[in-house]
Amino acid sequence: MGLNLTQKEAEKSLLLTTVEKMGRWAQKSSVWPATFGLACCAIEMMSVTNSRYDLARFGAEVFRASPRQADLMIVAGRVSQKMAPVLRTIWEQMPEPKWVISMGACASSGGVFDNYAIIQGVDHVVPVDIYVPGCPPNPEALMFGILKLQEQIMQGIPPKYQRLAMEGHTP
Ligand code: SF4
């Protein structure tokens, strides 16, 4: 009995895919986060790797202490003025391509800390690809953000810093 694949089915099959698509699949299946827990949101971030949430299912459980071994920065918590240059340096030390998730109200907008000491949104410091709302966002919300990022990678959407550079802005 012959195998009768439609053109679409054939395109989807691994053997007939392009090297580029396979590269994207490999990349999205092994996004390694750099730990950047700054406040209470970090507790929820840490939970995603435990057995209840099991982020390993999506290949993103390998949190690295070194930015050289990470391609995703999850900013979990408020960013102080003093921490901003450190955060920027760590982001610069991460190899390309790299992505940033802003986790929680404080990281995305300063949250309840509308004062001189706190950066009112980490996108003033590094380009952000995904914003996860909440105070704190629960582990499922963070995982949803990671899945959205994986979709972007699979679709070939460049990271935010690359898009900014293409538009002539300094990331
Ligand atoms: S968003 Fe809420 S839980 Fe997260 S760091 Fe700010 S105050 Fe804490």
From TrEMBL:
A Pfam cross-reference name: Oxidored_q6
| Cross-referenced InterPro entries | NADH_UbQ_OxRdtase-like_20kDa, NADH_UQ_OxRdtase_20Kd_su
Per the record, the major location class is membrane
* Gene3D superfamilies per record: 3.40.50.12280
Q: Which reaction does it catalyse?
A: a quinone + NADH + 5 H(+)(in) = a quinol + NAD(+) + 4 H(+)(out)
Instruction: Name the coenzymes or cofactors required.
Output: [4Fe-4S] cluster
Please name the NCBIfam families in this protein's record.
nuoB_fam, PRK06411.1
HAMAP family associated with the record: NDH1_NuoB
The protein, known as: NADH-quinone oxidoreductase subunit B
